[in-house]
Amino acid sequence: MTVRKSWRRVDGVLLLDKPAGMSSNSALQAARRLFSAAKAGHTGTLDPMASGLLPLCFGEATKFSVDLLAADKTYEAQLLFGVRTDTGDADGTVVMRSPVSFGRTELEAALTHFRGPIRQIPPMYSALKRDGRPLYELARQGIEVEREARAVTIHELLLLDFSGDRCRLRVACSKGTYIRSLAEDLGAALACGAHLTALRRLVVGPLQIADAVTLDQLAALAEEARGDCLLAPDALLQSLPAVYLDDVAGQRFRHGNSVTIAGLPGKCRVYAENRLLGLGELDDAGHLQPRRVLGAL
């Protein structure tokens, strides 16, 4: 006899240390089962080959998952020079081999050209869509289409280690940056090609890998103890200023009505009685408009 899974309401944010070799959705579903969470989502995917910080949202926290998509991110990346693959990473098929004849000085000089604002062509093996179809579907059929270069910013590009044909980099970057494309572009600049052999995400916005847990660690806990691993829903909003309303204004905001307050224009997290009400946006006239409002927690 098959026993049906019993789902329950869970509200909060889980900082998961995703293992390499697992898709982000598989990691999400595994964590969701461990919490028996009725509703879950993630804040942007990591490639299956990548490991590291994957913030997951449960319940009411899913309303804020989109707000972390625009956050800066930090990675540690390992590259192999002299070998290009069709995907730009170790999961792909080798398409070119070239001798490696540069040293650390030349590598450091090449890195300077990728710091700051740059333009980057997204890889064919990506989830970006063309005429409603993900590019990776076209790539798997041997179809390559023209992609427009996009503006991204590399805030930090630090050489951590270099040995022969391999290097390890720390990359802090804006949203939309493809580390695979960075590896390929760096290889092209050094005239030998390169691809990504390992990638680990360390930081997403204000969230750190040091605070993350693995699926194995979660599974080892009693179910009632797993809730201690969850952060409050506003963990995703810590980069925004906080606004505190009185009871009357809080009720208006909670019911979707604007509130007039003093403050700097822009998005903000809104509280009343020290309880998060949701995400608001203050205009130049001092009108605080509800953008996403939480249900009762």
Automatic annotation (TrEMBL):
Provide the E.C. number(s) assigned to this enzyme.
Answer: 5.4.99.25
**Which is an annotated GO molecular function term of this record?**
tRNA pseudouridine(55) synthase activity
Catalytic function, reaction form: uridine(55) in tRNA = pseudouridine(55) in tRNA
EC class of this enzyme? isomerase
Q: Where is the Pseudouridine synthase II N-terminal domain?
A: 32-179
Name the catalytic site residues: 47 (nucleophile)
Q: Which UniProt keywords apply?
A: Isomerase, tRNA processing
Tell me, what is an example of a GO biological process annotation in this record? mRNA pseudouridine synthesis
Q: Which domain of life is it from?
A: Bacteria
Pfam short name (any one): TruB_N
Positions of the tRNA pseudouridine synthase II TruB subfamily 1 C-terminal domain:
241-294
> Where's the tRNA pseudouridylate synthase B C-terminal domain?
180-223
Free-text function comment from the UniProt entry: Responsible for synthesis of pseudouridine from uracil-55 in the psi GC loop of transfer RNAs.
> Which family is it part of?
Belongs to the pseudouridine synthase TruB family. Type 1 subfamily.
Protein's name according to its UniProt entry: tRNA pseudouridine synthase B
Say which species the protein is native to.
Answer: Candidatus Accumulibacter phosphatis
Its taxonomic placement starts with: Bacteria, Pseudomonadati, Pseudomonadota, Betaproteobacteria, Candidatus Accumulibacter
The encoding gene is: truB
